[in-house]
Amino acid sequence: MYARSSEFGYLAAIALGIAAVTAILVHDGFRPAGALRAAAFNVVTLATSCGFGNATYAGSPGDFTVWAPAAQVILLLFMWVGGMTGSTSGGIKVMRAQVMARVAWREVIRASLPKVVRPIKQGSEPLDEPVVTRIGGFVMLYFLMVIVSALLVTLAGTDVTSGLSGAVSAMGNMGPALGEAGPTSNFLIYSAPERAVFGLLMLIGRLEVFPMTLAVVVAAQRLRSTLRARLPR
What residues have CB less than 8 Å from 196, skipping those under 6 apart? Predict the structure, then answer.
């Protein structure tokens, strides 16, 4: 039953990520056993947003801030996606990432075959277009919030790696980030206003994007209505 689920490929993606990171670490001079252990631990903990770290000192194999940039990018991708639908992990979730990948591929097909009818399927079941649209809106809002937050943090003086990865980590409730906020450090490297931005992201990421966005929109509408009612006519 589980093997027939399209999300079951999540395990294959984790295995592929572990293999890729291990190969990169071995190429950079780490011992194979230590590279495999560090790769497996960090890929799994960031893909599932457990927030654990196995590095006790900077520069150890488990300290992914000293890994090659390619390995860190792989970790960042897992932080973006997160876990399976219905799990308590953070990220946009595997199902949404799969749907968006299928939407992108459908548009590529439509570029050469404009009249083709190609429904988006999750497994063997086609998805209704309103569902696909809602998923697209979620992913767009998720990315927009992360990018805007990263922009605010970098404007405050934080470097790009620490700022962007910190925003991704906070939105996905991952725990550690890249750069100065790696597994041997913590978010105290950010200033109080920057931590406030990340705190808001953590709240949005845990309570979901749509409910939090709707709460802000409703509050703004009520405030506007109140101000209009108090203005002299």
Answer: none
Q: How many residues does the chain have?
A: 233
Residue 162 CA, distance from chain mean position: 15
The Cα–Cα gap between 203 and 132 comes to: 25
Give the residue-averaged pLDDT of 175-192. Answer: 86
State the amino acid at position 120 in one-letter form.
I
What is the mean pLDDT of the segment spanning 200-216? 86
Average pLDDT over the chain reads 86
Question: How does pLDDT run across 83-125, given as a tens digit for each residue?
Answer: 888 787 888 888 899 899 999 998 898 888 888 888 888 877 8
The DSSP symbol for 33 reads H
Find, among 74, 42, 86, 87, the residue nearest to 60 by Cα. Answer: 42
Instruction: Record the pTM.
Output: 0.84
Cβ neighbours around 145 below 10 Å, total:
19
φ/ψ of 208, rounded to 5, equals 85, 150
Instruction: Give CA separation, 186 vs 45, 169, 176, in Å.
Output: 16, 12, 7
